[in-house]
Design a protein that fits this description.
The protein is mainly beta and 691 residues long. Among the domains are: 148 residues, Neuraminidase (6 Propeller), CATH 2.120.10.30; 261 residues, Rossmann fold, CATH 3.40.50. Strands 33-34-36-35-37-38-39-40 form an eight-stranded mixed β-sheet, sandwiched between helices. It has a four-stranded antiparallel β-sheet with strand order 1-2-3-4, with no helix packed on it. 52% of the residues are buried. The N terminus is likely disordered.
């Protein structure tokens, strides 16, 4: 029972069910935008649209920001576009195409093409013509794509296969290694005059900040030591270099290196408080930068991820975003006077765009209030316009937006399908409930329209686990699609509760770092049970027909619910879930350093004897996040214990599916599985148990 689903296998699943008026294909038919960026000069911006698996670069130019595509790739080909950049004059877009490599050095090939794919760097003139191949990238870990354009717009720099590579953007010479440099070299940054690059050289248990000078071809290191140095950033005049030094898991500092003296010194030291540890998430990497004569950084020292700034010479840091909320994603205006950022201030399960002076002294000002979700703010090179991604409502997919006069103006509106069923979707509502230990948990409740009487319900648990599901379309592609799937499942008659269990972000550091979670005891599982009890209290929910679904860590919680509480959860759809923490070591959930027995007892397999409810298992066999062996090893246990299951394997796909049709299959199969078990009460046919 090992097959790969495709669109040709789904005609029945595409039909409306339970009174639903739109299909899963319609729910996923929108163009998903990402990678919004601006040219260093002028008013040109660019982004990527992924429309039904067809990814292309789009641009728009102020003041009217009329949008059009500048690349013309066709088909659902599984070739992602990443690290989108514009040359400073806005005349050329640079991007990586193809996935990063797996542990065998293979770029993902989800279409099972017999020609081996490569991850490559391309340049495309906005005036037209064919894309120019600059060279191969083939970077070796998830999210490693990082292309940097020289200040004069003539050269592209990137890391791949542990080396730094450089190529002329004109495409008139092949890419070449910058130099022979020991270690795994990445995070390269051009100096403002384009004569030097700073980078990180990782060498096992420590990393160094290197500076390579073109022309005389010299290599030096900024205050080499035994720590993890990272995030090199040049000052606007190139006279100094700031970087982060992680001394221990509890201690980190901001160092500034002088190019004149060759010496470095710490201008800021993390405080000795629980939140003083180095931030684990996107906040620090996104925020750390020069802004004129100040350095902007992130810290959780007061228990919340906040923006701070400090003079380059050192001194007391200034808190820019005070309050019990989190920021994520920011940009500095060209004149270095203000920071534009996304946060959930005063709207905990949404994100809006805010602005605050770099030097502080004023409260942040909200630029995009309302019922939608906005993210990825940017400022045009001339400083005149602020743009973002997002939408104004919970049932309108995110699009590029111009923020002006207190309102958002959607770009490329004609790309949204005319029949997109926003009017037939239900906006979720924010609900709260309490776990057994009293902790308040947030969820998003999708209530079907015209629901009368008791019916089936589903709990959705996200992956990560440092993620937060929102009251609108999500910034990340996988959760963006899963949000659409929940809208679709609600249209089929299911009450859906998306649970932001402890370990989720945006509710403070203590909530994100709870005691005894994951492989240390699965304390977050009580939040899932609390969600089920909340559903059971609703007059529209049949307590005997509650299911679970989720992917990755959400797949783990799905399997855990079925194993521990088949008396509560009647069925589950487990996409790429973890089933045995003890087999992972330190890869997921912090199992490294914990007792193997605790890791095992925190896993679904520990309670396999109590697992009775049927499960749908779905996983890609080139999964680079959760080993495919987690599913390989679970299936014999399911058979041995006579647990009904259905198995769908996606050969050559990866964890975050690259093919649109894979997502379509996952969600449609999930809906059909719940229809079969929860609505029709049919049994699940599976393999006979092993003798």
């Amino acid at each position: 029972m090992n097959f790969k689903s495709c669109l040709l296998l789904l005609p029945v699943a595409a039909l409306p069910a339970l009174g639903q008026g739109f299909t899963m294909q319609q729910a996923l038919s929108y163009p998903y935008p990402y990678g919004l960026t601006a040219a260093a000069h002028g008013e040109r911006v660019a982004w990527v649209f992924n429309k039904r698996g067809e990814r292309n670069v789009w641009i728009a130019t102020g003041p009217d920001f009329a949008a059009h595509a500048v690349t013309h790739y066709q088909g659902d080909d599984g070739m992602p576009i990443a690290s989108l950049r514009l040359t400073p004059d806005g005349q050329t877009v640079i991007y990586a195409r193809g996935s990063e490599t797996n542990s065998q050095g293979e770029v993902a090939d989800p279409t099972s093409n017999v020609t081996r794919p490569q991850q490559q760097v391309w340049a495309q003139s906005v005036a037209g013509g064919a894309p120019r191949l600059l060279g191969n990238m083939n970077c070796a870990f998830e999210g490693c794509e990082d292309i940097e354009i020289s200040p004069d717009g003539q050269r592209a720099l990137w890391s791949g296969a542990h080396e730094l590579w450089i190529a002329p953007i004109a495409g008139n010479a092949p890419a070449a290694a910058v130099a022979y440099i020991r270690g795994d070299n990445r995070e390269a940054q051009w100096s403002p005059d384009g004569k030097r690059i700073a980078f990180i050289s990782t060498r096992g248990s420590y990393s160094l900040v290197g500076i390579y000078t073109f022309g005389d071809q010299t290599l030096t290191y900024a205050d080499p030591a035994v720590y993890r140095d990272t995030l090199p950033r040049w000052s606007p005049d190139g006279s100094s270099l700031a970087f982060v030094r992680v001394v221990s898991p509890q201690t980190w500092a901001i160092e500034v290196w002088s190019s004149a003296t060759g010496q470095a010194h710490a201008i800021w030291q993390s405080p000795n408080v629980p939140g003083g540890t180095y931030p684990q998430g996107e906040w620090q990497d996104d925020a750390f930068r020069f802004a004129g004569q100040r350095i902007v950084f992130a810290s959780e020292q007061d228990g919340w991820p906040h923006l701070y700034s400090i003079p380059v010479a050192g001194g007391k840091e200034t808190l820019l975003t005070p309050g019990q909320y989190s920021f994520v994603g920011d940009a500095v205006t060209p004149d270095a006077s203000h920071i534009v950022f996304a946060s959930n201030e005063n709207d905990v399960d949404r994100r809006h765009i805010w602005q605050v002076p770099v030097a502080g002294g004023e409260a942040p000002v909200e630029l995009t209030p309302g019922q939608g979700v906005q993210f990825t703010p940017i400022v045009t090179g001339d400083g005149k316009f602020i743009l973002c991604l997002g939408s104004a409502t919970a049932t309108r997919p995110a699009m590029p937006q111009l923020i002006a006069a207190g309102a958002m103006h959607e770009l490329a509106s004609t790309e949204m399908p005319a029949d997109y069923p926003s009017s037939e979707m239900v906006a979720p509502e924010d609900v709260t409930f309490h776990a057994a230990d009293g902790l308040e948990i947030h969820g998003q409740l999708f209530m079907p329209r015209n629901r009368t009487g008791k019916g089936p319900a589903l709990i959705f648990t996200h992956g990560g686990p440092p993620r937060q599901m929102l009251l609108g379309f999500h910034p990340m592609d996988a959760y963006n699609y899963m949000y659409a799937a929940n809208l679709y499942l609600a249209s089929r008659g299911y009450v859906v509760l998306s649970v932001n269990y402890r370990l989720s972000i945006m509710y403070g550091r203590a909530f994100q770092h709870p005691a005894n979670a994951g492989a240390r005891g699965a304390s977050e599982y009580q939040d899932v049970v609390a969600g089920a009890k909340y559903l059971q209290s609703l007059p529209t929910v049949d307590p005997a027909k509650i299911g679970l679904w989720g992917g990755s860590y959400g797949g783990y919680l799905t399997a855990l619910g079925l194993a521990r509480n088949s008396d509560i959860f009647a069925a589950g759809s487990d996409y790429a879930g973890v089933h045995d923490f003890s087999a992972l070591g330190g890869r997921v959930g912090g199992a490294l350093g914990t007792a193997a027995q605790t890791a095992y007892s925190s896993s679904p397999v520990a309670d396999i004897s109590k697992w009775k409810s049927p499960v749908l298992l779905l996983q890609a066999d080139d999964d680079r996040n959760v080993p495919f062996t987690q599913t390989v090893n679970l299936v014999p246990l399911l058979r041995q214990h006579h647990i009904p299951y259905k198995l769908i394997v996606y050969p050559d796909e990866i964890h975050d599916s690259l093919l649109w049709r894979t997502w379509l299959s996952v969600f449609t199969e999930t809906g059909d599985f719940f229809d079969q078990v929860l609505v029709k009460g049919q049994s699940v046919q599976t393999d006979p148990p092993e003798k």
